[in-house]
Amino acid sequence: MKRISVYVLLFIFQLGFSQEVPKVLKTKFSKEALAQKLQDENGKEISINDILHQHKGKVLILDFWAGWCKDCLKAFPKAKELEAKNPNIDFVFLSLERSKEGFDKSLERFEMKDRENYWFASGWKNSFNNYVDLNWIPRYIVVDQKSNIAKYYAISPEDPEIQSTIDKLTK
Known about the structure:
The chain is α/β, with parallel strands linked by helices. The chain has helices spanning 2-18, 31-35, 48-54, 70-85, 100-109, 127-131, 160-169, and strands at residues 37-39, 45-47, 60-65, 90-95, 116-119, 139-143, 149-154.
């Protein structure tokens, strides 16, 4: 019984540190982070820089997720509400699926095909995710009209700072 208790406590302790807010809340992306390549649904590569360039002049929400992530699936209804409440805001979904097959299946299963989706074929550990201190999903980053980071760290679409940041940027 003691052994089980120790494992449970270690698991809870690890979870507590998994969601630790980064000590430095960044406001710009590094050159290395911007060069990170992703793949679209067709397997075509695109850099983070190119994605941001396509949305320059608009407020953009980067939504990190995966179909295997229970917290991401729980957040979907609220994320859809955030999107519906902000029709003039662009949303880009960055998938951390473990395979291209998983990415394709998740897009279909969770009715994401009508959204702008990209997949980190390089896996979780890459220049972009390391730069933004990605330690948990879901994760949301608000990018302003000049491609700077306006809200660096949110792990729920219900985080009131996401909406207040959107409101400030769109006044």
